[in-house]
Amino acid sequence: MAKKLLITLCGRAGSKGFKNKNLKTFCGKPLSHYTLSAIDLFVKARPDVEVDVVLNTDSGLLREVVCNVYPEVIFVHRPAALAGDTVAKMEVFQHSLQVMEEKRGCQYDYLMDLDITSPLRTLADVLGCFAAKEARDDLDLVTTVAKSRRSPYMNMAKRVEDHVEQVIKTSFTARQQTPECYDLNASIYAFKRDFLKTNTTGFLWDGKLDVYEMMDTGVLDIDSEEDFDLMEIIAGYLFRSNPGFAQIRDNIR
User: Fold this and answer.
1) Run of H or E including 160
2) pLDDT of res. 16
């Protein structure tokens, strides 16, 4: 029996840090269409998996941008209770799962989320992250990362009253002595369905987690105008020099 996968795109109408970021045009194309292109390529590359794709949003404009060009995407309306600044994204994943299982009358095996504001990913990244979860039933979640530019064991301090202290208390004197560390880039999450269904805290670290390492492009998510400008510069270079990134751009409808 084919495995069932629910792929989500989640974007709310409001964003205090960067107004209407999900509706931006990125290097001449709608920002969301880079994620949709990656999903389209994944579906074609994995015909053995039954895939449904949903857009979970409270934005009518985002629905038009997505569904008018990618009609196979199913719209799920995000209620106001899940559209606030402090809502855990896992709650939105759970809402998508609940709505779609009721609509389809089925039970999915996995949910995979691709972040709209992370346009710089390759098909290999999506395939790799999903395969890493698929290969290990003991894992609740696989998420994408890049190697940390700075070690939290060596380069991070926290303020304590009138001075600063190490974030992690250690006696390491060289970076080479420290454990390997990663920056979670929020580009792709691949969940075991049962973990999502039963989680009540919205906290990723409640589960058993592993990672899939992506190329470090410097800034992988867009939270400000400055991030956006930098990402367009990086993207222009990657589209010219790296076939994997160019494939995503060229596959946009």
Assistant:
1) strand 157-160
2) 62
